Amino acid sequence: MSGYFRTHWYYTDPDKGVNARGTEAFCFKRYFVSVGHTPTIPNHSLPAAFACKPVNPRIAVNSKNLLLLACSTLVALLLAEGGLRLAGFQPCLLKEYANREKITQFHPQRGWDLKEGRFLRPRYSAQQPDIVHTHLPGKLRRSRPLQDGTLNAQPKLVMIGGSYTAGNAISDDETFSWKLQERFPDLEVLNYAVGGYGTLQSLLKLQEVLPAIRPRKLVIYGLIAHHRVRNVATPGWISMLSRYNRNDLYIPYVKTGENSRIQLQPLLHFSPFPQREHSALVALLENAWISIRWRKHNAEPTGQITLALVSGMQKLVKRHNADFLVVLLSVNEKAAAVFMKAFSENGIRALNCSFPLTRDMIVTGDGHPNGRMNSKWADCIGRYLDNHRGRLAALQAHTATPALADQ
Predict the structure, then answer these.
(1) Where does residue 37 rank: exposed (0-12), middle (13-18), buried (19+ CB within 10 A)?
(2) What is the reported pLDDT for 67?
């Protein structure tokens, strides 16, 4: 035992009844006596009942060292934080949506779903009126006045998808579901879309609600390009979704298994890092953790998976004797061509209603499509429905037969 740790020896003083620091000479003498060696210091120099033993050098840290360690760590963290700020890194900036009353609730299979109730949401800009979201029993959004969630006898137009179909950041009467209901009063429009949903969650919700809907006529899935990464929960999607939430996230996803078969996985659970809104260092660590922990999700074939999920939707809808239509709402020209070709080759009916999301077509302060864009979508879908009245009428005759509808 040499160097600094030679001073860390203690003895029990029977007079004081406490452990006290002994001199190095006392400690070494008592130690060598205990192991049978000849001491180098006379025995009479030992106090009565003197007990001496070396302290483990790994834990022999006094209060001064602890204080020095704490101060050094704090200085290092402050320097790292300052350096990151100078380099352009910033704390996590949450979306305005995260600061508003939650209009969704936990769902054990899909991660989240609509919370029933009428929600008056603050406007995102001075030019926008207050936003009214009405979620009816059955987890759907209101698409006509006085709708209460009770299904009537009219043929149904069922809408599924994410926030563009649901109408995030705009009121009930601005959504294209509402506008389609006004244009086709002989149909009952049911908007089951939920903000943040991809193809997977839309399929899971359709499996839940479709059997109880009669008579069925047409199911429309509103697709945007970003649904592809949502289906496999890429790190980028997890990071993006966490900026819309302050609480823990539960995200459903699929991955490909043997023979490229799609396998539904348990809900992915992510807890936001504490203080990420105040520290660039914590925000950087959170992003690094997400990127490393779920990096394998980036390797999934998102296009193939999305196509397989959409095919699953069509099979489900056909089993319930209804028609199915995919509507491209926000897909760039190149991706739209790929989607339309793949859908055509797989016998899936698709309609391209993508329009540029220019500044006059989005909600200022939020970025979601505004009422004007929803009017364009309603007109695009409405023209399709007008041109396919004969086909839909034939389907209506089939769905009017309960025996067929239940097959």
Answers:
(1) exposed
(2) 84
